[in-house]
Every structure is written in C-alpha cells, then in structure tokens.
Amino acid sequence: MKVYCSLFWGVSLVYCTCLSIIVYLRMASSQCLENPPSLDSTSGIGSVQEIGDLKAYVTGPQDSKLAILLIHDAFGYEAPKLRKLADKVAANGFLVVVPDFFYGDPLDPDYSEVDRQAWLKAHSMDKGCEDAKPVIAALRSKGVTSIGAAGFCWGGVVVVKLARSKDIQAGVVLHPGPITEDDINEVICPIAILGAEIDRFSPPEQLKHLGEILSTKSGVDSFVKIFPGVNHGWAVRYSDDDESAVKSAEESHEDMLNWFTKKLADKVAANGFLVVVPDFFYGDPLDLGIPNVDSPDWKSWLKVHGMDKGCEDAKPVISALRSKGVTSIGAAGFCWGGVVVVKLARSDDIQAGVVLHPGPITDDDINEVKRPIAILGAEIDNSSPPEKVKHFGEILSAKSGVDSFVKIYPGVSHGWSVRYSDDDESAVKSAEESHEDMLNWFTKCQVKEVFSKTSSRARPNIKPYKTRNSIGYTLHIWKLADKVSANGFLVVVPDFFYGDPYPYDLDDPKLDREAWRKAHGKDKGCEDAKTVISALRSKGVTSVGAAGFCWGGVVVVKLASSDYIQAGVVLHPGRITEDEINEVKCPISILGAEIDSASPPEQMKHFGEILSAKPGVDSFVKIFPGVNHGWSVRYDDDNESAVKSAEESHEDMLDWFTKYIK
Ligand SMILES: *[C@@H]1O[C@H](CO)[C@@H](O)[C@H](O)[C@H]1NC(C)=O
C-alpha cells in the first residue's frame, strides 16, 4: 500500500504510539494517493529559469511589479496541474514563480516509510522557508514590489512560515500539512486558508481553530474556507474527468486569485509606481513669511523659480528615468506644480498628467496639451476658479485624440489635496478622494501606455489619412483601441508598415502604389503578426483576438487559418479569396459596408454561407446599410449618422471578442 501523506503524520505525531500511526495510515492512504501527478518537465507555457539559487518554473509578465510564489506539494514543481494553475495566475497580470524546493528530488511514490522520513529530513519545511528568501530577494531586485505566496500541502506550511515575516505581502494556504499554533501566532501578513472537508491532515476543525487565532490578531486579515465534499489535495490533484472535482479545484483557484488581487493589487496603486518628487526649488521653497502674491518678495521668488524653468528642469529627470528603463511616465502637480504638469503635457515627455488646484494656466498652454490629462479643482479657489477649470475641460474635450477629465471638489479650498488638517475628517476624505482619482487616472493611462508603447514607432509619424472621397483620421483607430482596452483587453496596434503607411497624398506625382503594395504584402503582415502574438503569449497572454480593417481584414482572415488567434473580426476587408475563407478555423465575424466595391455585400454573404457550412466554426456576417467601405474607422466626427454606424460596428466587434476571448 502506498502512503505518501503519512510523512507529515510521522513528523507531527512522532511521539504517538505505533498503533495510532497505523490506524491513521490506513485512513489517509485512500485520500492522499488519488491522482498523483505524472511529472512533466516541459509542461506549461512558461520557462524554467534560475532565480535566487533555485531552478524555477516562471510564467507571466516579466516586468510585473506583483509576483506570486507557488509552492509545490511533495510531488515538486514539475506537476502539470500546478504549472497550469501558475499560467492561470499569470494571465491575471502576475509574474508567477514556482521554485524547485526539492532540488530535482521530489517525493518518490514508491518510497518506503523509512525512505520517506529520510526524504522529509532532507527537505524540511523550515529549509523550504529559508530557500524561498533568496528567491524573494531576487524578485525584489528585479523591481517586484509586492509578493504573494500560495502553497499546497508541504508548500502550505512553508507559506505560513513565510507569513511570519515581511518577505511576503499575502499568503494562501491550500490543504496544508501540519501547521503549529506557534507558527500561526507569528503570522503578520494577510492569509487565506482553504481546506478540504475530508482531510485528516488538516481537518476542518483545526483549520477553523487556526482561523479563530488569526481573527483575534489585530492588523492581520484572514480568511478560512472549507470546501465541502473534497479530499486533501483537491486544488491541484483532481481528475480532469470528474466535473465536480474540476469545479471545486477551480473555485479554490478563484478564491486564491481574489485574495491576491485584493491584498496585492491594491498595492499596485500604492506601490506599483516608482515615484519621484524632485526638489525643483533647489532647496529654496517659498518663504512662509511672504504675505501674498502681490508682494515683491513673492514676485522675485517666482522670477527665480518660474514654471517654465520647472518644466525644463523636469526634462533631465525624465530622461534619467527613461535611461533606467522606465517606459511610461505620469506627472501630477499641485498649484505651482500643476502648471508645470500642463507644460509637460504639451510634449511626449509624459504619458499622462494630473493637475491639482493649479496655479495660473493659460488657454494657450491647454490648447497645446497632447497627453491625457485630468484637472482636479477646488470649489473655493481664486487662482483656478471652477468656471475656468471647466472651460479648460471644454477646450480639452474638443481636441481629438486627447483624453481629459475635469472634476470640481465641492466645499474645499485651493490646496485641499495636500494641505489638509489630519484632524478634519471631511478634509481628509476629500483629499483622499482626489488621491484616488489621481491614481485611477494613472492606472487608466498606464494601461493605454502598453498600447502606445507597443506602437511607439507609429505614433510620431501619424498623419491624417485623407483621400479625395472621404475624410477620416488614423487617430480613430487609436481611439477605438482605447475603447476596446477600456473593456479589459490588452490592445496592441502594431505598425505593420514600419513607419511607411500608404501615401496619403494621392496627388503626389511620385506616388507609386504598386511598389508600396509589393513592399507591404498581406502575407508578410500575417507573418509579422505571428511574431507579435508569440511575444504576447510569452508574456502570459492566453487568448488572442484580431480585428482588421481593409488591408488588415485580409491579414485577419489569413491568421484565422492558424492557431495564433482564437477569434477574428474582419471589417470592410480588401480582397479575400474563397480558399482563404475555406481555411478559417476560429470564430470569425465579417462586418461589411452596403456601398463597397472592394468587398461587396453579396460576396460577404457568400463567404458567410461557406463559413456556416463549416462545422465547428462560428461565424457572423452583417452588412451595414448606407455606409461606404472604411466606415468603421474613417468617418467624419461631425456626421452624426456616420459616427453612429461606426460605433455600432465597434460594439459588434467588442461583443464578438467578449464572447470568444474573455
Ligand atoms: C453622413 O454619413 C452618412 C453615412 O456614411 C452618409 O451617407 C451621409 O452622406 C453623410 N452626410 C454628410 C452630410 O456628409
């Protein structure tokens, strides 16, 4: 009889009689031996790397500020279900590391009782805890600011031990081995314990008791949940064929993820940014003795410390940050600093700005703003009165391609966001609300930055797209990308033309359309897209959709014949062949214009018939009445009906992706 789990029993009840051990082994054997993993060193979409002296399976965005350690059970880090879970966690934006705490020596199921004891001696949980520390240090040196740890059985005990220090910021313990009350008493970080109803190792009563100890500790968030009807090990050693087992395991994964998201992702806002507060005044802040802005002292101080100079001084700071590898920079400024932020937002120096109770801003400055900007003003403010702030908001919202946000805080005075009294509850609340708004803005704009960063080659070259017949702007694509990303997708708009878009001046006598077409073939586009998709997958993206317009529509159809994408949307496509349609393997939606000689409605409908005859391929065809080829991205902003049709196509696109990608 194989009895792996007895190893913990042997440790925790070393003083018990042989009889009780034997009784236990008989009971434990049936539950602990179910579904041992078939180890596979190549499983998972991540890679094995060396981190802090340990080999580790690593998956997820390498530049994430949030990392999760998954700590294996006795079967080690090559268990495919554990790696699959790691990939799942990684898809939620965490860098996930599964170290090999057993140095290539996981528990052999065929070990005798004696061998098991020797094995456990070599691989104690205290050693696991010590070995985790260099891994954590290595992650921190890479820029990770918050670390969670989840452990199973053996690993669950290690997590509790780690939770006694500041090494981790949140822990999740799943069907743990023997945890002592002493260990629990020393826990200082938020911890969730997920246990099985049928578990002799960590019986529900014991876990609940540990939960009670935790809940009496002040400042330590805790959570205990017993999963009904499942055995020890259910979270990672379930049978794929048992629907209810899979469901219980997945529920535990969700709980784990929610715990980490709640306990760590909050900190993204607080800790996820590198924050720099330069001394723009070179040690010479405004003397508090200066009575008011009309005094000569104030004027001479301001002459030395002008806001234009502040803007110039900020640039070397920004360059220094970029040279350190920072790709996305937001700037928030208060009063004097608010004016500096507006000046910075006129350039590509920053990716987003937040202006709080600003000093004197001119319409000209606002007119030149190129970057997303939020203006947070006070209701009672002589230097930036609400009407003026709202007026700036109107100017900004009329600018195409510049996101803006204006909010007036009621009942507060200029300076409220940083110069409030700690004793005034309502003042503190208003200040904190402005901090939240600021953080939300940066978080929102940072998401976008992923998108503009990926396309940074295209952005500086962007020119209005004009033809004789239609007026539109390439920026509509950027705007649409923002709209899709606001729905929770990471959106990437690659520059498939390497900075050489279709010549927009059709009257240019030197225009050589054939040469351009030859240089930018759709097959090449398809191959280039595959490289981008592979890069996304290596970052932990699990599901990819592609939408393409005209030229891009053809590329999407080509991609849809591969496993590279999981869903496609084709809008007013260029020339597609029946052969190409025949090879489509993934769900595809074709949105066409009624007035379109490049892709006439009858042809689109015919493609739809071919697709609907293919088993296993979901398809959808819709013809938009009264619109021309290009309507979904090259529309006139002033034409209400054109905007409506375009937006309807965007909605259809989003619905399709939500159905098949999310
Ligand atoms: C507005 O757009 C619609 C649809 O594209 C078009 O039929 C109509 O002529 C446009 N109206 C104007 C005034 O350009």
Automatic annotation (TrEMBL):
<dbReference type="InterPro" id="IPR002925">
    <property type="entry name" value="Dienelactn_hydro"/>
</dbReference>
<keyword id="KW-0472">Membrane</keyword>
<dbReference type="Pfam" id="PF01738">
    <property type="entry name" value="DLH"/>
</dbReference>
<dbReference type="GO" id="GO:0016787">
    <property type="term" value="F:hydrolase activity"/>
</dbReference>
<dbReference type="InterPro" id="IPR029058">
    <property type="entry name" value="AB_hydrolase_fold"/>
</dbReference>
<feature type="domain" description="Dienelactone hydrolase">
    <location>
        <begin position="471"/>
        <end position="660"/>
    </location>
</feature>
<keyword id="KW-0812">Transmembrane</keyword>
<feature type="domain" description="Dienelactone hydrolase">
    <location>
        <begin position="54"/>
        <end position="262"/>
    </location>
</feature>
<feature type="transmembrane region" description="Helical">
    <location>
        <begin position="7"/>
        <end position="27"/>
    </location>
</feature>
<protein>
    <recommendedName>
        <fullName>Dienelactone hydrolase domain-containing protein</fullName>
    </recommendedName>
</protein>
<keyword id="KW-1133">Transmembrane helix</keyword>
